[in-house]
Amino acid sequence: MASFRILTHPEHGTRAVKIGWSWPAFFFGLFWALYKRMWLLAASLFGFIVLSSVFIPATQGGQLISNILFLGLNLTISLKGNLWYASLLETQGYQEQAQVSARNPDDALAVYANSQKASAADICDHEQGGARSQDQDPWGDQRDERETERERKDGRGDRVEKDERDDDDNGDGGSGGKGGGNATGTFIG
């Protein structure tokens, strides 16, 4: 698996840039730079091609020198090209958000998107933690029903309902006086 930098821009979205070696840059240096809109690099490569064809003689020794220079240039672009591309994106307003491991840029973007959804869900859970934990009490509803049933059998049910109505009528939103709790005595803040 490869590592990718995840860069985001408020208007242009998210991009994944591989960290390290770039095979497309090695095999298609000038065309890769044009595709990535790295105009300065593309112009430099084009200038190097033109100057080398003008100044290096078309002999066997000159051909060897030319091939060595192009190999060195392609190795440099392959090693540094992705870093240069990430730097170019940062100058255009992109900001690095994360580094993820994935097989390709699309998978890297998917991993990042999933991690953002998961962290957003964690934030929502944390914000709603108090209310949600009380809502998820599996026995709380059953216990309330059982207590209500017992109160009705004992003849206290009418009195409890009357007390609840009195609390609601006093204009404090049913806080129940000092305790601030509901009918079962559980404090919900």
Description:
Strand 1 (2-9) and strand 2 (13-18) form a beta hairpin. The protein is mainly alpha-helical. It has helices at 23-27, 29-35, 39-55, 60-91, 105-127, 129-135, 140-154, 157-169, and strands spanning 2-9, 13-18, 95-102. Helix content is 63%, strand content 12%. Helix 2 (29-35) packs antiparallel against helix 3. Mean pLDDT is 76; it is low at 130-135 and 173-187. The longest helix has 32 residues, at 60-91.
What share of the residues lie within helices?
55-70%
- Runs with pLDDT <50, length 5+? 130-135, 173-187
How is the main sheet built? 3 strands, antiparallel
What's the total number of strands? 3
SSE succession: EEHHHHEHHHH
* Average predicted confidence as pLDDT: 76
Helix count, per DSSP?
8
Query: Radius of gyration over alpha carbons?
Result: 34 Å
The shape is: rod-shaped
SS content category: mainly alpha
Please report which band the strand proportion falls in: under 5%, 5-15%, 15-25%, 25-35%, 35-45% or over 45%. 5-15%
Strand ordering within the main sheet: 2-1-3
> End-to-end distance, in Å?
48 Å
Labels describing this entry:
single chain, 189 residues, mainly alpha, three-stranded antiparallel β-sheet, 8 helices, 3 strands, rod-shaped, disordered C terminus
Brief summary:
About 65% of the residues lie in helices and about 10% in strands.
